[in-house]
UniProtKB/TrEMBL annotation, chain A:
Name of the gene this protein is made from: LOC105229590
Cofactors: Mn(2+)
UniProt entry keywords in alphabetical sequence: Glycoprotein, Glycosyltransferase, Manganese, Membrane, Metal-binding, Signal-anchor, Transferase, Transmembrane, Transmembrane helix
Gene Ontology biological process terms from the UniProt entry: carbohydrate metabolic process; glycosphingolipid biosynthetic process
Similarity comment text for this entry: Belongs to the glycosyltransferase 7 family.
Membrane topology listed for this record: Single-pass type II membrane protein
Documented EC number(s): 2.4.1.-
Membrane-crossing residue ranges in chain numbering: 12-30
Pfam families reported in the protein's UniProt record: Glyco_transf_7C (PF02709), Glyco_transf_7N (PF13733)
UniProt source species: Bactrocera dorsalis
Protein name as it appears in the record: Beta-1,4-N-acetylgalactosaminyltransferase
Automatic annotation (TrEMBL), chain B:
Organism: Bactrocera dorsalis
Superkingdom classification of source: Eukaryota
Membrane topology: Multi-pass membrane protein
Keyword Transferase appears in the UniProt entry: yes
BP-aspect Gene Ontology terms: protein targeting to membrane
Catalytic activity field: L-cysteinyl-[protein] + hexadecanoyl-CoA = S-hexadecanoyl-L-cysteinyl-[protein] + CoA
Main EC class the enzyme belongs to: transferase
Domain Palmitoyltransferase DHHC: 241-378
EC code: 2.3.1.225
Protein known as: Palmitoyltransferase
Lipoprotein is among the record's keywords: yes
Gene: LOC105223812
Pfam families listed in its UniProt record: DHHC
PANTHER family referenced in this protein's UniProt entry, alphabetically: PALMITOYLTRANSFERASE ZDHHC23 (PTHR22883:SF475), ZINC FINGER DHHC DOMAIN CONTAINING PROTEIN (PTHR22883)
Residue stretches spanning the membrane: 87-107, 142-162, 168-184, 289-318, 338-363
Length: 322, 398
């Protein structure tokens, strides 16, 4: 069988094979199957995007305000063994894992909320590194460790809600929702809030320093306290691994709040190795119907009992029953 | 070209004639009869007889049994453009063996090491065996082709592609496509290497006239170069230019630097070697394609292996060359805990091993080219012409 195209004869099988090859090659290089590029704040734009807001006790300080421009200009790699082994100058850190610079008054106050259960080794590494890292940024911060006391599946989103309520009681204007297994590698990722909620770990090492999809909004997230309250926090229904971060993204989207990211070289994070959590099988169904519960499920439906609150030398420990 | 094909003395290749007017399901069987694939279960006298003997518990005739097996093998064919192709054990084996080996190697670290060591040893041994005996097999070329297909398929389905940037994939695709096209051309142009005996010509024709027959389509430049080459070798060997070269096997006069390939059963102009991996001879008209294909193939394999390993293992930033981040894997210790990722790991290691093999071949080829000789000439005891390396490289490239 032959086909005549442009006065040239082609064999049908030949044509089919050629068209199939071309289609395969096109499919092969289609960009939508791969990691995505994303819009980000350039290093010069970062400082204007940040919101300068502190708690009352810091605003009472009568000292010159701290200078941050060198942190953004240098963007040094801090993920070094010297910062991972011991807490350097531990006497600077106040009980409850709080710190503010002594020689100048910090311009940013941040509550770092870390949901936690049974990850002693990672917590150890996290606290040592984060205190060494964050003090170099000359900000006022406090680490809240929210531990789930009961035996139900791990409910990360609910622990964030609880942490945000406690941080709001203490007047923190900025929340950073932080996983215990993620460590920032570059100093330029300032632990402060931008006007828009910010996805901080957009260049994660286990993802080859790329962003798998633009809607990824988990891991480490910076969000202003009033914005978090405005979107009614996160959902309390996601038990087990996965889904809650996508739900947070959907909530922001439905409230017309855009997100932002810093430059990839400022957003490099490393993930500490751990066994994968049991995945939440119902997460896709919850996600699909999540928009119906944005107003009813969240901070206003949060029920929990606080078992214990203790100020450790490196963190504030909050033990809760969900 | 048709002349050449009708002249071909290779009986095995006669079924591959593209102009024989066969439809894709027809073929010429071992008794030179037209046959159709659909008739594979009909009319086999030997089988009837053997089966009847077996049922009636009579003694089975040895020769009939052999004939029956031959017909079985002959009738096992797949439809192909220009006549159905025969499927033999050695062509079919790689298609099943490679996925089997990969799936076993991905179970844990020990099976991985054992499979890789064992299969490399077996492959080396069988390659050497076939090479020594100049056996005729398409096992290695099918192995090559199916490796390529399985590597691509498994890369698509096991590597977490969401961690790979589209640009990186584009680079990998371009390198692989260039490499595949070059190897395709190498195979396609392999027939141009063969020395064609003019129909009316006697064996006394001088060599220059013989080359000109099939050199018509080539550019003038190449022809000049060939003549130059001829001069070189002849001055090297001390043969006077009007004495024709003779092929001992074919008993005919051939151009200088021509060697007989026992596998292809033909005289190949400037034979480098017979490549079992491509199932064709590397000679004058496809040597450059072969080298380019190897360079791009090695690059594609290394890029693909690095993409795979950094995606499934823990990567680190090794270098930043002009804004392009180069990642390398640094920790693959828990790779065998998830089967899918360990399959990706295994294909990456396989790709690395192949790329190393290609690199060794490239080093060998580079040395030979710089000395201005072919592998075949090296085997026959020649250790290089008396030209400079620069001149030799230039004359190879141009």
């Amino acid at each position: 069988m032959f086909l005549k195209i442009n006065q040239r004869k082609y064999h049908v099988t030949d044509l089919v094979v050629r068209i199939a090859c071309i289609a395969l090659v096109i499919y092969w290089i289609m960009p939508w199957r791969f990691a995505s590029h994303y819009e980000y704040l350039h290093r010069n734009e970062i400082q204007q995007a940040l919101v300068e807001q502190v708690t009352t006790n810091i605003s009472m300080q009568r000292m010159p305000p701290c200078e941050y421009s060198d942190i953004f200009a240098d963007n040094v790699i801090t993920y070094r063994s010297q910062y991972r082994e011991h807490v350097l100058r531990g006497e600077e850190i106040l009980p409850g894992g709080e710190y503010f610079p002594e020689d100048c008054s910090a311009r940013f106050s941040t509550a770092i909320i870390v949901p936690y259960r049974k990850r002693e080794e990672q917590l150890h590494a996290f606290l040592i590194y984060m205190h060494n890292y964050l003090r170099q940024q000359r900000i006022h911060y406090r680490i809240f460790l929210v531990e789930q006391y009961d035996q139900k599946p791990f409910n990360r989103a609910k622990l964030f809600n609880i942490g945000s309520v406690i941080a709001a009681e203490l007047e923190f204007p900025c929340l950073i929702l932080h996983d215990v297994d993620l460590l920032p590698m570059n100093l330029g990722q300032l632990y402060a809030c931008t006007q828009k909620p910010r996805h901080m770990c957009s260049a994660l090492d286990i993802f080859r320093f790329t962003l798998p999809y633009r809607g990824l909004f988990g891991g480490v997230v910076a969000i202003r306290t009033h914005q978090y309250r405005f979107i009614n926090g996160m959902s309390n229904l996601y038990e087990g691994w996965g889904g809650e971060d996508d739900d947070l993204f959907n909530r922001l989207y439905s409230h017309k709040i855009d997100i932002c990211r810093f430059e990839p070289s400022y957003s490099t994070y490393t993930m500490m190795r751990h066994k994968p959590e049991k995945k939440n099988e119902a997460r896709l169904e919850l996600l699909r119907t999540g928009y119906k519960r944005f107003l009813t499920d969240g901070l206003n439906s949060l029920i929990y009992s606080e078992k214990e609150r203790r100020l450790h030398s490196l963190f504030t420990h909050i033990l809760v029953e969900t | 070209m048709a002349d050449y094909f009708s002249q071909s003395q290779n009986q095995l290749d006669s079924e591959k004639e593209p102009n024989s007017g066969l439809c894709c399901c027809e073929y010429i069987d071992h008794q030179n009869k037209h046959y159709h694939i659909l008739a594979c279960c009909c009319n086999c006298e030997d089988f009837d007889k053997v089966f009847t003997d077996w049922l009636t518990c009579r003694r089975i005739d040895r020769s009939r049994q052999r004939n029956m097996l031959i017909s079985f093998q002959d009738r096992l064919r797949i439809p192909w453009q220009g006549g159905a192709k025969q499927v033999t054990f050695d062509t079919l084996a790689p298609v099943f063996v490679i996925p089997l080996l990969i799936s076993i190697a991905a179970i844990n670290a020990y099976t991985c090491i054992v499979i890789f060591l064992a299969s490399s040893v077996i492959m080396c041994y069988s390659y050497n065996y076939i090479h020594r005996n100049a056996g005729h097999t398409s096992f290695f070329s099918i192995w090559n082709l199916s490796s390529l297909i399985y590597l691509l398929l498994l890369f698509e389905f096991t590597v977490p592609l969401l961690e790979v940037l589209p640009e990186e994939n584009l680079v990998l695709a371009l390198l692989s496509i260039i490499s595949v096209i070059c190897f395709w051309q190498t195979r396609k142009r392999a027939v141009l290497n063969r020395v064609i005996q003019p129909i009316t010509g006697g064996s006394e024709l001088p060599d220059i006239a013989e080359t000109s027959v099939n050199e018509e389509n080539e550019t003038e430049q190449t022809t000049l170069l060939i003549e130059q080459d001829l001069d070189e070798v002849q001055s090297l060997d001390g043969i006077s230019s009007n004495q024709p070269n003779l092929c001992a096997t074919c008993r005919k006069s051939v151009p200088a630097r021509t060697a007989h390939c026992p596998v292809c059963r033909a005289c190949i102009k400037r034979l480098d070697h017979h490549s079992y991996w491509l199932n064709c001879c590397i000679g004058e008209s496809n040597h450059r394609y072969y080298i380019v294909g190897m360079i791009f193939g090695a690059l594609a394999l290394i890029v693909g292996a690095d993409l795979t390993l950094t995606a499934v293992c823990h990567p680190f930033l090794a270098a930043n060359v002009a804004g392009v981040q180069i990642l390398l894997p640094d920790d693959c210790t828990e790779i065998f805990e998830m089967y899918e990722l360990s399959v990706a790991f295994v294909i990456a290691i396989y790709a690395l091993i192949i790329s190393q093999y290609i690199l060794v071949m490239l080093v060998q080829q580079g040395y030979m080219i710089s000395r201005g000789i072919t592998v075949q000439e090296w085997k026959s005891g020649l250790r290089g012409n008396n030209k400079t390396v620069k001149y030799n490289c230039k004359s190879f490239v141009l």
